[in-house]
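Appendix B, Record 12. Input sequence as logged:
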Amino acid sequence: GKMMLASSLTWLPAGVSKSLPDVYEAEGGSEDEDEGNASTLNGSAASPSLPNPSSLHPTSASMSSDDVVMHYGLDTYDDDDNEAPLFAGGPKNLMAFKNNEEDPYITLPPEEDDDDLEDFVIRSTDLVMLTAVTEEDQLSHLDLVVVPEAMAVYTKSTEESVLRAPVSEPYVHHDYLLPAFPLSVQWLGVPSANTETGLVNLAAVGSFEPVIELWDLDVVDSPSPAYALSGHSASVISLHAHPSPQLRNLLASGSADGSVRLWDVTRAQNPLTDSDSAASSSNTVSPACVQHLTLHGSDKVQAVRWHPTDPSVLCSASIGQSHSAVIADVRQLDQALRYPLASDAETLMWLDNQRLLISTEDGEVICFDVVAGKPLWRLDAHHGPCAGISLTAIPNSNPLVPILATCSPSKQSPLKLWVIPPNSGPRCIYSKTDALGKLFTVSFSYDLPFVLACGGHQQLPHFVNILEYTPVWRIWTGQDAIPSASPSSLSSGDMQVDSQFEDNHSSSSASSRKSGKKKKGGKRH
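Logged structural output:
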C-alpha cells in the first residue's frame, strides 16, 4: 500500500452532521463568476451571513483590554441569554428541496442504489471524525470518516461481550483536496438559524500555507473552502476552537511566525467571491482576526489550548530557541505566566481547571499547576517524542479518575495508557501496542469515552476500544483497584512505573526520531 500520514485528527460531536449532505454544484458551470459580491459572513448576498451586532465587532484589530472584554462578551459571560452570534443564510448555491427526488443535485436516487445511499446518510448514532492525511506523492486531503452505528452498538447493552467488542469498520464518507501539508484540524460548530442542524458545520485547517481554510462539512465535492482566514505570515501549526457554547465562533491559532491569533469566524470572508479584493490575499489581515498575540518571540507556536472553564485564558507552547509554555489571560497579557521547557513542546491538554499537561519532543509529559506556577510531576512516557495525548475518565469513579493516552512515532509501545490516581502521578496500565505502528496523534471520542482514535501511517485512523485490553477493562469496571502511585512519583524526577509495564528498550534511533517530527521540515508545494 501507499505510504500515508494522518497528521491530525479531531472528533465531531455525534449528531452535528447534516444527515443527507448537499452535493456541491458550481453555479453556471464556473466557480468564480460572482466576484462582485461582498461576502464577509455578515455581508449581503453570499455565503452564510450574519446580522451585524455592532457591539461584537470592534473596528480595529488592536483592541485595548477593555475592548477585548466587551468584544468577547466576557463581562456577561455567565448570563444565560448571551448566545453566540448566529449565522444567517446558507451558501447561495445550495437550494432546499422538499425531498431528494425533487433535488436535481442529489446524485443518488434511493431506488437505484440503496447501499450507496445507506453509506451517504450520516446518522446520529454514527461516530464522525475529521482526519488530515498526506500521501507519499505529497497529495493532502481532509477526510470525513464515519464509524457506522458505533453509538447504537455500544449503548444497547451492558454485556461484557458487547462493551469489549472491536469498533465497527470505518469508511471515508467524503474528502476535500488541501493545497498544502496539513498541520492541524479543528471542528467548529457555529450556531445558525438557517441550517437543518442549527449550526454551520465547519472544519478549520492549518497547513504549511499561512492561510487558515474553513471547509463546510455538510457540502460534498466542494473544490475550495467556504472561507479563509488570512493574517499569519508562515505555516499554521496549531488550532483550537473555544470550548464554551457561547463562544463557539472563537478560534485560536498558533503559527511558525511566532504569533498566536484569535479569530471570530463569523467575520470570515469567502475566498472566491473576494478574490479581487485585498481581503483574500494572504499578506493582508482578515477582518476576522480580533487579536494578535506575540508571546513566544521568534519561536514557532506548536500548540494552543483554551482553558476549559475560564473563557479568556489561553495556553500556548513553542518550539525553538526558548521553548516554553505560556498561560495568558488574553485581556491582561502583561500578567502571562511563562514556564521554560527542557525540550520542544508537542501538545497541550488541560487535566482539570488547575493542571495543564504538556508533552514534549523528548518523550516527557509534564503536569504543570497553573495556580502554584510549578510542575507537579513529570512522566517519561516514551523514548521518542510524545507526539499526542488525550484524556478520558473512568465512569462513576469518585473523585473522577482520568485515563491518559500518550502516543509516539516510535516502534516500541507507540500507544500507552495510564491512570492518574488522585494526588499522584500516572501509572501505566497498558503498553503492548507495537501492532499499531508509529503514531502521531490520539484522541478519545466525546460520545464513547472508551473509543480512542490513533493517527499513524495509514489513511484511516486505528479506532481502538480500550476495553479490549484486559487490564483496562478490569480497572474500568472496578474489578481491580486503581493502582496507587508510589510517593516518589510526585518528585520532579523520573516517574516510577510498575516494572511489569516498563519498556526495556534503549532510546529510539535518530532516524525514527526524525521521521516522527512531521512538523519541522516538510516542503511547501
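DSSP finds six helices and 29 strands in the chain.
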